[in-house]
Amino acid sequence: MIRLLSVAAAGLLLGACxxxxxxxxEARPRPVAAAEPxxxxxxxxxxxxxxxxxxxxxxxxxxxxxxxxxxxxxxxxPEIIELMDRPAEAKPWSAYRKIFLTEKxxxxxxxxxxxxxxxxxxxxxxxxxxxxxxxxxIGVETLYGANTGKFPVFExxxxxxxxxxxxxxxxxxxxxxxxxxxxxxxxxFRQPLxxxxxxxxxxxxxxxxxxxxxxxxxxxxxxNLWTDPEDAIGSIANYLANSGWRRADPLIxxxxxxxxxxxxxxxxxxxxAPKSLTRLSxxxxxxxxxEPAAAVDAARTALLVTLDGETGLEPYLCxxxxxxxxxxxxxxxxxxxxxQLSEAIAARR
Length: 349
Known about the structure:
Elements: H1 47-60, H2 64-72, H3 78-84, H4 93-100, H5 103-115, H6 117-127, H7 131-142, E1 151-152, H8 153-163, H9 168-184, E2 193-194, H10 207-213, H11 229-242, E3 253-258, E4 280-281, H12 282-287, E5 290-292, E6 301-309, E7 312-318, H13 320-326, H14 332-348
Antiparallel strand pairs: 1-2, 3-5, 3-7, 4-6, 6-7
């Protein structure tokens, strides 16, 4: 049982293990489609899809014929619904940590930092985000570009927009943003591949985040998160900076020791609802029986997060930059995996 209520990613989804080879830089984001056969309900002819096409044409001037052809060549994917209902963040921390704190990801992170040292240094100078944190996010998301997703983004988002009622409004908006993005970047709607939730590229940005926060960091005139590590590095740094990352602040999270019952009821559990988070000063946490494992200014504020480890409860005092990472993925498990992977990469260099 996990004390922290994990929340599935609203903005970005995690990658899985593969070979840790730094991606090759290409001039344009041209992901090669390798779509699996669609086996679910066809989209063509559905009244809600026809209404959506009319709305996209009226609102954005997107060609109705091109949209009809894309929907006619696509169908709902049942496996996407299944994957949405069993995310990695549903695992306990003891199992989740083993997915991401591996030799492959640590060693791959060291290699990625060496191969992209100049871009990482430039991102840190501009945005204040350490290179090992940017690297760890790429490592957790896609294993440094080895696994950027196998699902056609259009089909994944359409499945969730029209056949996943629980979050249909969110995914319909992401589908809209994807269509605008594809139009802006001159991409065939059915060409780009991504995660089962429609996250794209090395950084696994959702379409709305791509349009708002992706940047052309190498100055070639295109925002290419699929194959350009420089653009991915700059875009992740920009994302975290816009999420409240504190420049020149090395503290992300500290292990803590618990004594007495005073801390119970003050554990931060829902990063989707920021107003529910309990932020107290270190002095106040000490008064509640929470002692940081290292020296820290008593006036600093922190959140208390408790995770279920292999040998019992693991408490952590988490600071502003930990919260900024949860804006990338609304899960403390994710933020802790990024934190600990970044520390492991930094220690290995």
